[in-house]
Amino acid sequence: MATPGHLEIRNVSKTYALPGRPLVNVLSHVGFDVDPGAFVTIVGPSGCGKSTLLRLIIGLDDDYRGDILLNGRRIVGTALSRGIVFQDHRLLPWLTLQQNIGLSLENSGWSAKEKASAIRDHIGLVGLSGFEKAYPHELSGGMAQRAAIARGLANRPEILLLDEPLGALDALTRVHLQAEIQRIWEAEGVTMILVTHDVEEAVFLSNRVVVMSANPGRIVEDVAVDLPFPRDRAHVDFIALKRRILAAMGEDERRPASPRAA
């Protein structure tokens, strides 16, 4: 069981310098807290800085203004306390499932027995027992993403970051894995932050949904999702929250489609 982390994002701004162009303001005064064990989703249009913010949290970029704190300490560089799962599973094709998961434990300092136990436990957690010796090409897309989640959790991080982890999957597999992620989150107790374009996915999984807008990237609404699990996508309260978030993004699904030009 992971020890859940407390994340504090304090007045974070980020700019990029592009050749021959003025500075691009990607994030502007972004701030919110993520309580230990919470599931928070960040949504917003392309270019609003969602994935940039994840890069700062994971520690891949420290050139920003403001503070990002994990359990009261400023994040500096990457560390085993923060795991990440990307849209592409990024499994190494020449390694088996258990070897791919074992890569995340290379710098853990654990004994061989502890590593083997963690690999076994997390393969079981994501429902892939029996596929330990399988290579990535022998796994379906959904299975490969579950393997990536197992790899992200195997060293028991305090926080797991999910960067559009289901974006490349077909609709049916995506819905199934949303339920799996919700189950895994409850089983592990880890703090999770998800970035997605899918508002329904955000409402299905999260305690809170942070809505961002672009140019520059900033928070426009922070929505509490106080619905019991398992969640019913057809329930009136679920639909109302989805509409509220879409409206905050400027994409209210109730707007009629524009008429086609004659």
From TrEMBL:
EC category name: hydrolase
Enumerate the GO terms in the molecular function aspect: ATP binding; hydrolase activity
Note the Pfam families from the entry: ABC_tran
Q: Which family does it belong to?
A: Belongs to the ABC transporter superfamily.
Pinpoint the ABC transporter domain residues: 7-239
The protein's name is Sulfonate transport system ATP-binding protein
- Note the SMART domains from the entry: AAA
Source organism of this protein record: Xanthobacter agilis
Q: What is its EC number?
A: 3.6.3.-
Answer yes or no on keyword Hydrolase: yes
UniProt keyword Lipid biosynthesis, yes or no: no
* Superkingdom to which the source organism belongs: Bacteria
Keyword field: ATP-binding, Hydrolase, Nucleotide-binding, Transport
